Amino acid sequence: MRGQSKITDILAYVIIIAVLLWTVLPLYWLVITAFKPLEEFMAYPPTFWPSQWTLDNFVEGLVRQQGAPSIWDSAVIAVGTFVLSIAVGVPAAYSIARFKTGGPDLSFTILSMRFMPPIVPAVAFFLIAARLRILDTYLLLILVNSMANIPFVVWIMKGFFEEIPYSIEEAAQVDGASWLRLFWDHVLPLAAPGLVAVSLFCIIFAWNELLFATLLTGRNIQPFTKVVPGVNIGHVEPHWGAIAALGLLVIIPIVILAFYLQKYIVRGMTYGAIRE
Amino acid sequence: MASIKWENLTKDFGEVIAVNEMNLECEDGEFLSLLGPSGCGKTTTLRITAGLETPTEGTVYFDDKPINHLSPRERNIAMVFENYALYPHKTVYKNISYPLELHGMSKDEIDERVRRVARLLEIEMLLDRYPKEVSGGQKQRVGTARALVREPAAFLMDEPLSHLDAKLRAVLRADLKRLQKDLGITTVFVTHDQLEAMTMADRVAVMNFGFLQQHGAPMELFNEPANLFVAKFIGDPSMNILPCEVQDEGDRSYLVGEAIRLELPQDLRHKVHEQATSDKVLLGVRPQHIKVCLPGQLEPNGKNVVSCTVYVSEPLGTEQLVRVRVGQELVQVLTGDDVTVEMDETVLLQIPEDRIFLFDTETEKRIS
Fold first, then answer.
1. Cα–Cα 20 to 30 A to B17, which of A2, B44, B45, B154?
2. pLDDT over 90 (residue B209)
3. What Rg value do the Cα atoms of chain B yield, rounded?
4. B80 closest CA partner among B158, B194, B178, B135
């Protein structure tokens, strides 16, 4: 069957290359467009390698088009969302996991709130926020993004907490640890993989969020998801170079974060310490 | 050091009553074993003592002071768990030092104590390893070290040896017993293995279905079991139990069962008439006490002889475990290697008068 395996091999390679191109090509395009001068990125037919490398687009995007402040706004919202979601979600998850708070269905009820498309309550949020005079504030966006993330945090962390053998916590109690102490010393380290995963998720979600970023903001808060589409040459033509430059810049922090944190997502930390 | 007292201890989990009005004491420095089959309430009692469960009723005392209201960390006890419960994310050293760190001891003192205990339990070379890099027996020692390092008022051990292989268990049984005697710390040791309880403890408390059956020194339980359960649970191979009927003939009485006719010793005779609820009783005799003789080897006083056929014989080295058919029942006899029997051979068993136990069929209490 030599001929057969050769055909499947070729097919496999073709598919892999196709998928790679599908994912990598846009990224590649983004990078080269960011460094192309205006005449080049507006030119047709397009070039696949910059004839000139320039940083003009970065300056254009960050300074003249207000890209820098918008990245800052997004950062504030992302970090705030992460802090609030974890601060609320993790203790809730622990409480449900260990003390069965709210009965057997509470965690699913919380999760089910995520099933609802965010657009559904969007108008309601607008009206409530207007009434409370918190429209166009960091607070509002942090709250709304957290609302979307907390169910996920609870659901995932509950699973991780339940995997930690309770006898470890009992041993810590007998050894003399208070609840808070044993939570910090044992529960969190052992649930670290889950914690890292949900933290990353919260940050990425809030960072990329578009709907609430446009709907619930005005002149004060300008997340980059709202600003970047409006980066134009003149009034109509998108400034692709600046857009690409900003796009590249906003990807980088996430990639670095994920890369750095992946070593904490190590499964099997409890293996062998408890005789199952 | 502390004495422990359990007073009217009851724990019910809704449908199941795990511990039923238990009254028991453990003296300061004593090694007490809670012994019984799975589900008898021994682990629940231990956990209540540790403060990990609250009793439904009753009080636990340390040195005559009630401690029901104290949380585990306030009780100054140390516990060794059945599944070791080591901290997987900390090294062996950190596992052992953790309780001391919690109590704010100085680094030097912690180091000194940890190393001392590690040396005692021969795990010094493991201090830098993680729990998952260490064998079962070693994990058990680490758990014990963590308990020892604090020098608590009492040790609570929940079946610490049950997941180890037989040879290792034998070694650790001796080690733990010696350790306890050297340190003199009050120890409550839960196990389902009667051999562990008998060999290690000063006193054994046997439990079944949440009830305390009997407590006393190991040999006391062996020689004077209070009821059928204790008689059968203690001793390996376990006691033979044969149903009989008491029949009076003049001023003698006989125990008559299927293929058995034994004379009832006079001292027991009175007690049977006083205590038994009916004339049906259960005859108990330990395999070690039955003599096997071939026909023709009978002793001059040929009393209490039972004829039977050999079912199977299991050589154990210097001893033999012979199972014989007495009527419908299989009786176990532990005999020396000087007796040779063949399968299906007819042999005679002689049951010494002073080794007979009688139990009331209904109450299952021993008639004594």
1. B154
2. yes
3. 25
4. B158
CATH domain B4-233 topology: Rossmann fold (3.40.50)
Question: How far apart, in Å, do the first and last CA atoms of chain A sit?
Answer: 47
pTM of the shown model: 0.81
B155 touches chain A (CB under 8 A): no
Percent of chain B beyond pLDDT 70? 98
For B236-274, the pLDDT digits (tens) are: 899 999 998 888 888 888 888 888 888 888 888 888 888
Q: Which CATH class is domain A66-240+256-264?
A: mainly alpha
Calculate helix-pair angle for A192-208, A67-99, nearest 10 degrees.
140
User: Is the CB of B131 inside 8 Å of chain A's CB atoms?
Assistant: yes
Which of A185, A188, A275, A276 is the best residue to mutate to test the B interface, defined by the most B CB atoms within 10 Å of its own CB? Answer: A275
Superfamily of domain B240-360: Nucleic acid-binding proteins (2.40.50.140)
Taking phi over 0 as left and psi of -120 to 50 as alpha, with beta for the rest, B147 belongs to alpha
CB B143 within 8 A of CB B131: no
Mean pLDDT over B101-125 rounds to 90
- Mean pLDDT over each residue of chain A, to the nearest integer: 87
Sheet containing B211-216: order of strands: B77-80, B154-158, B186-191, B31-35, B203-208, B211-216
Residue B298 has pLDDT above 70, yes or no: no
Give how far A44 is from chain B: nearest CA, Å. 59
**Start-end of CATH 2.40.50.140 domains in chain B:** 240-360
- Rounded Cα–Cα distance for residues A71 and B356 (Å): 91
Q: Where are the domains of chain A?
A: 2-54, 66-240+256-264
Q: Is B229 left (phi over 0), alpha (psi -120 to 50) or beta?
A: alpha
| Between A236 and A80, residue with greater pLDDT | A80
Write out pLDDT tens, residues B352-361.
Answer: 888 889 999 8
